[in-house]
Structures are given as C-alpha cells and as structure tokens.
Amino acid sequence: MNDFQHDVVEANGIAIHVASAGKGPPLLFLHGFPHTWFVWRNVMRALASEHHVIAPDLRGLGDTTRAASGYDLDTLVADALAVLDAHTKEPAVIIGLDLGAPIAFLTASRHPARVKKLVVMEALLGGLPGAETFRPPWWFAFHAIPGMPEEVISGREEAYLDHFFAIGTKRGLPAEARAAFLEAYRGRDSLRCAFAHYRALPENAQLLAKVERLTVPTLAIAGGVVGDALARQVAPLCDHLETARLTDAAHILPEDQPAALAALLRGFARTQG
Q1: CA 126 to CA 172: how far, in whole Å?
Q2: What pLDDT does residue 271 have?
C-alpha cells in the first residue's frame, strides 16, 4: 500500500517486515491470528497525522521470516524491541490485539523505560487470575497438536479461516483484508508458524505468571468476545489502569470499529501519565 512505508528489520535470526507511516510520538501495533499488520491499516491511517505508527508482522506470519523457532515470549519481546529500536528512540505506546497482547504486556512490564503506555485488547494473558469464567475456544487445543492441524487445513485454508473472520467480526471482513489474510496464511509452512504461537502458550503462560507489577499506564479495551476478562487479569498488577468497551464489535476490533478504536487510542496517548 503506497501510503505506508515498508522495511525489514534484521534481528534475532529473522527478517521482520514492518509497515509504518506518519511522524510524532510512536505507536507500535502488534496483531494476532489470523491477521497480519494489515489489520491495523485503518487505525494507522487515522492516527498517522499526529503519530509515527509502526506495525510489524509477527514472527513467522505475514511477510516476516517463517522461523523454525522463537515463539516463546522472551524472543517475541526481543523482536518487538528490535522493531522499536530500528524506528524510534522515544518511548512508545505499545498496542496488542489477540496474540499481540501478551507480547505487548510483557514488553511493557520488563522494559518500562522503552514503553510509555500499554494498550491490550481481546486477549487472554496465560493463566493469570481473573479470566476463570472465560473458557478458551476449541481451536486453542486443536492448534497445539504438533503437526496435525496444518496437515488437515493445508489446501482448505479459505474455508477454515473464513470461520474466524465470521465469528471475529460483526459484519465480515472487507474484501481487501480477507484476501490479504488468506494469502498470508496459505500453505503448510505458514500454518505451521501460526500454530507455533499456540504451541508455545503453556511456556508463555509461565513467563506471564512471573510478572509482579506493571508500572506503565495501561488501557484494557473490551470487545464482544473476550470482553472484561482481560481487564480483570491486568487489574491486580497495574499501578494505573483504564478500561473501555467498544460496542457493536466482536473480536477483531480494528476491523469492526476502526474509527472508535483510533479515537480511544488518540485520547489515551495524549493523557499525562
């Protein structure tokens, strides 16, 4: 897309594809499954007039290297820091959706000098207390089975991913987003990398459980799927927590409510804290 700059950050044994735009205080966006950086495009456009907006493809996904390993949060945090270091010297607001939220959370907790504020949405943070009433959906266990889901889904990506697009949005994905995500997750190796994020969840839950305090100002945004469970998880750890809810939205908030989400992020980034 010609209104975004695209570059590659070589770090931690991989080439990380990054889309960016604008100038001003930096915002780092981390996507989830089954998305790429492209899920943030409309939010980034809305904020690029006053912010430097930065969105990588996560390890193994989109146009980032199909890595054989490194799906633990230690490495994913290092990937996020490498992207920040390549793009800005300023502390950034780091924003995570779905799989991106634990990465953003752990980056903020470990590196508060590098992260000005934290925004998390529509995700679970391992087994941290507060989300006991939210039952993880069936695909968490399915994706964690070594080798099997990519064998079953390869060649049937369209039908499989359309399920997530349908339940993740209120009105379905725009054609351009659906096409971009289908292309990104097509093929056995792409699927292997996607499911590697799920196979690392037990190890990553142990890392998340070690967080004792989150000192940076934090905003937890509820959608229509995970809802308030995420805010309940982070509340006991936060020195400063704000919460918000986007109505008429399912799970993929940047697709369902990009303007409302951009307005929330703009306001939170501007506040002193």
Answers
A1: 28
A2: 83
